[in-house]
């Protein structure tokens, strides 16, 4: 691979990714079927120029990030990730919230990291089990939602 081009000049497939949580150690049950919410957006404030009705200036205000959502099949309560979510969301704020860094890596066909995003200061804000339907033969899915302070693309 050379420069910014991928094999054959095509973008990489988005289905081969890994997620690490914490101090870089791979959480054994951090296999997810879907990751979303890696985004950065600048909020702006509309300011109307006095005496000039043709212009509305958009001034930069702040940077915001949506919540990160991770989806996967249901796992056991002994999962370190489930324990972190459970402690944070069911802890009634008795213990302080423990923010961690979540790293999402897009991998190439041979396992090489093509792109990586670090989501700093992440903590669970929602833990959701998708609805059950007796007429479908599907895996039971849990969705974990995390707020994060900021993100940085490292590759």
Automatic annotation (TrEMBL):
Q: Matching InterPro entries, A to Z?
A: CHP02241, Phage_T4_Gp19
Q: Which residues cross the membrane?
A: none
Per UniProt, what is one Pfam family of this protein? Phage_T4_gp19
State what protein this is by name: Phage tail protein
According to its UniProt entry, this protein's organism is: Undibacterium cyanobacteriorum
């Amino acid at each position: 691979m050379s420069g910014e081009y991928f094999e054959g000049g095509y973008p990489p497939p988005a289905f081969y990714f890994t997620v690490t949580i914490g101090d870089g150690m791979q959480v054994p049950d951090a296999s997810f079927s879907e990751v979303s919410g890696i985004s950065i957006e600048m909020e702006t404030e509309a300011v109307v120029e006095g005496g000039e009705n043709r212009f509305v200036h958009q001034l930069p205000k702040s940077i915001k990030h949506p919540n990160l959502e991770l989806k996967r099949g249901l796992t056991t309560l002994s999962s370190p990730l489930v324990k972190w979510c459970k402690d944070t969301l069911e802890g009634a704020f008795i213990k302080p919230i423990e923010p961690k860094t979540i790293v999402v890596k897009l991998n190439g066909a041979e396992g090489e990291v093509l792109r990586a995003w670090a989501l700093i200061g992440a903590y669970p804000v929602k833990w959701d089990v998708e609805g059950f339907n007796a007429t479908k033969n599907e895996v039971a899915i849990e969705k974990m939602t995390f707020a994060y302070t900021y993100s940085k693309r490292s590759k």
